[in-house]
Amino acid sequence: MKKHRSTVKRILDYIGHYKWGVLLSxxxxxxxxxxxxxxxxxxxxxxxxxxxxxxxxFTALMGVLRKMAVVIFITAVSQWLMNHINNKITYRVVKxxxxxxxxxxxxxxxxxxxxxxxxDIISRIIADIDQFSEGLLMGFTQLFTGVxxxxxxxxxxFYVNAWIALVVVCVxxxxxxxxxxxxRKTYVMFKHQSETRGELTGLIDEMLGSQKVxxxxxxxxxxxxxxxxxxxxxRGYSLRATFFSSITNPSTRFVNGLVYASVGVxxxxxxxxxLLSVGKLSSFLxxxxxxxxxxxEISGVVTELQNALASASRVFALIDEEPLKPEDEDAVELxxxxxxxxxxxxxxxxxxxxxxxxxxxxSVKPGQRIAIVGPTGCGKTTxxxxxxxxxxxxxxxxxxxxxxxxxxxxxxxRAGYGMVLQETWLKSGTIRxxxxxxxxxxxxxxIIRAAKEAHxxxxxxxMPQGYDTIISEDGGNLSQGQKQLLCIARVMLCxxxxxxxxxxxxxxxxxTEIRIQKAFAKMMEGRTSFIVAHRLSTIKEADVILVMKDxxxxxxxxxxxxLAKGGFYAELYNSQFAVS
Length: 580
Prior knowledge:
The chain is α/β, with parallel strands linked by helices.
């Protein structure tokens, strides 16, 4: 319940940015309610001037009808303006929350991304915020007018006849009990529904992104079973949420009937005994309908608000995730890295229970080529993550150009590196845009030169529109090798002082790889380079080869020296090139 109140408070904080719009909406709601509730009095007056044969006062009746026309016009205009303002406030609040969520997503540590399904994150930013907007819009549109209608109706009824109004007040707690019961039940069910919907979105996203692998390994049945299990849970939560929300209408209709019957009996008794005119009785019956209708609407609003609050709480949970450690106010701007890199007594693990890198030491001189090899899981890619400061070290220090990278701006540090990974990433857009991703202001000649150096120019020219060819998300209409060449061209264009090549040629055929290695050799001249490779043939020219195992450097030296040593590296090398 505390979390529930916290979510409501945060939503009100966002709404508070548009307080003048809210106040105007409340004023218009008050006008709408007053004019709506004034209409039954006019109807009662009209009934009183035409009651009985030969007693119709046409002059008075025309005056009442003119008043009714004005009241109806004012009601329509104020209601239209109120709805328009509510729509603007709602979608601006939703825009603010979605923008805040995405901005926070941009500064979340990589650790969060690695530990949460992307589909669930997408579901929070898209589906949950959409669900929240629907509930908030209904709340703005109906909650204000509903509450004001209830209070206004009671005021008018007390004005007409206090005793009959007291009868209505005595029946009111039944509606409150019904609304309270429904609110408690629906919030829990809608919360489970939102969470399970996010889980299902995550599974679908995972299966879509890996459909070839799923089919290649015959995993369709297992995927289907997992989908059906989650879908069944979603069905159960949705059914229960729908059940509790669906009892709203019959429950409130029952209360409506009680109120209307109470007013009818009490009003008829008063009219028979001359305490109330027939016109006033008709006004009271109209008020009975007006009074009970908002309870019906508010109960529906409460149901939608429970759904909205459940969705909003998931979005706020994302926004509340601890962001990246803020940079120091006096953080160094790395403008011209000289290529010196040092790792001193570095220790790091993704989880405290599973140690990975311990007491890692490395000193790299400007322009050196450092190759990192070792078995899977030894920490090769982890070293790259630490160099780029995707993760911060647990102990020790990493410095670039003599500065601790923790006291350096992340943007300037990463701008000093050119990175080509085994996993390619391309955005939806033209080939030109993808190559110029790290240097948007690059001239056409620079882009073409980078593509030629990466041996991508020839296949680009064969594309339908050349460099203006639109590629789909993640380059889905290109081969894996072509995507890798574009990623290499992207680095060729920027040519930063330090390079990281993590299995950069793993998806390229042998012939092209030879050309790329020559291009890399040219690109690495005078630049500090870190090369992660499983294919040891690609690292023979490295100045220093680090042989890692279980997070430690077991051996280091040149290719010839390590072979002559006959240790772990020689064993790895011979296992790849042994002659049978």
